[in-house]
Amino acid sequence: MDEKESNETLKISSPPLANTKVQSVIPKNRSEVLKWNGWGYRDSKFKVTDQGMIRFTGNRYSIGETDLPFFTQWVQQVLNIDLTLRNVPREKFSSTEIPPCRVSTKLLNIFKEMKIDHTIDSSARLLRSHGQTLYDIYSLRYGKCFPRICDLVVWPANHNDVVSIVELVNVHNIVLVPFGGGTNVSGAVSCPANENRCIVSVDTSQMNRLLWLDESNLLVCFEAGVIGQDLERELNKRGYTCGHEPDSYEFSSLGGWVATRASGMKKNVYGNIEDLVIDAKMVTCRGVVEKNSKVPRMSSGPDFQQIVLGSEGTLGIITEVTLKIRPLPDCRVYDSVVFPDFESGVKCMREVAKQRCQPVSIRLMDNTQFRFGQALRPVENTFGNLLDFFKKTYLTHVCGFRLESICVMTLLFEGKRSKVVSHRNCIAKIAVSFGGVTAGERNGERGYMLTFVIAYIRDLALEYRVVAESFETSVSWDKTLSLCDNVKKVVANECNKLNIKYYLISCRVTQTYDSGCCVYFYFGFNWTGLDDPVSTYHHIETIARDTIMASGGSISHHHGVGKLRAHWYEKHMSKTVLSLYSASKKMLDPNNVFANGNLISFPLSKI
Prior knowledge:
By secondary structure, this protein is α+β, with helices and mostly antiparallel strands. The radius of gyration is 25 Å and the shape is globular. One of its GO terms (molecular function) is alkylglycerone-phosphate synthase activity. InterPro entries: Alkyl-DHAP_Synthase (IPR025650), FAD-bd_oxidored_4_C (IPR004113), FAD-bd_PCMH (IPR016166), FAD-bd_PCMH-like_sf (IPR036318), FAD-bd_PCMH_sub1 (IPR016167), FAD-bd_PCMH_sub2 (IPR016169), FAD-linked_Oxase-like_C (IPR016164), Oxid_FAD_bind_N (IPR006094).
């Protein structure tokens, strides 16, 4: 083999590709583009027009600048919302409402000498002291400011900056809280209220370089602050994909994915984050944890680097991550299947998993969520309305389905066109055996894309006296149906006890495995007549989570533990596991610098 032929066989990226700064969709000043007190882009939101119609603004999503009459009717009927009574959110906190910073001039001068960008601006500090929990967003819009926020925000530019920061604060007994995309729903970046030490938020957003791309071995290394959509865009330019697409991927960071053991909608083909990560650097108070190897697998004793995954900022700061990548697929095809009831759909998904023929994405919505999704469709032309009428007539009169019990499975196929066609036929055959009826590409694509829009609904709901949140779990196949039924019943019973008349509880199966699946719940209610809606919601969700655990579910499938679920972590993990984690914490962080309070609460000053 001559030199030219060898270079073509071992295709490795050219030098200019290394160390490429990524131009992020999200600027350093996040509030220029993102809401400070809600989800997503500032120009994208559900709003009520002067004519009393709900409309989605902006052009970033397929339903942008579209009136939604069916959704308007749905929220009025299901949640008894009066769209003439808007609970207007505050525009901002006054300077006296935001906790003052507790940072010394000496420390500020040290960061200045280190040439590490930093600020004590109150808005910047507040923005990096919360995530997206119901408590977070309700407090920002209608409640009091958080009792404790970070005192200083720093923007390291690279791995070495993080090493310097960690060494500095370890000497001066200062707390570090890593901050990535700010999308957590577990209270992970909120500051412990009784922490008296100076708290520094380490915003990793400026650490977003593509460090190298190895096309021969299909590997890439990014800095951990890169945002999901930026990462994927850079790979797509070069003909590759990571394939990790969590619901939050527009705004969440690579480091956050690793720190929470994230999962994405396409995990069936590309894997969860733990399947994608080859190596990850984490800076701790005792040094850097890393494999420093690109081999696909090692049998070299216990893999202690696994402690990086799911560490949730309690052990160190993740700075660089090496991932597996794949060539972009030739084609993408959506599909959907309607089932007579949720049980039939679950059985179909279980069979698909048993045969290990899952497409890139396969998800099942229960009847409540199906109706909710249908309500979000825009008004179509006469032909489209006529087509929908015939579909409904076919399902009810020909197939004998009842509209109050049907559910929908949405599908996404990727790959070579010939294989996609074969794969689609295989799934269709299995679906038919469980009473399923193919519902076409349009419903499948709409269902998939609405995933990115649904998160915006809570902001609208809060303006009209509705509190809502999602929570998820993983469960074995034999307990999936009973867990779903038990959670829905206990939520309904508690709402009745509290005289909550208008509420919604629904679920969907989002990821499948050989032995089980992930179940996602959506719960919300009209809180008219209640004094403290957030506490009431938390009370009901706590009962629901207790039921999940009693029904064979897990604490979390992919959202992580944070502070919100720490109670269940300590309660349901074995004493040996808790002791092992505590020993790791003491070894890697003896001064409790990473004292964000996630997973297990340690004494505030020292362990």
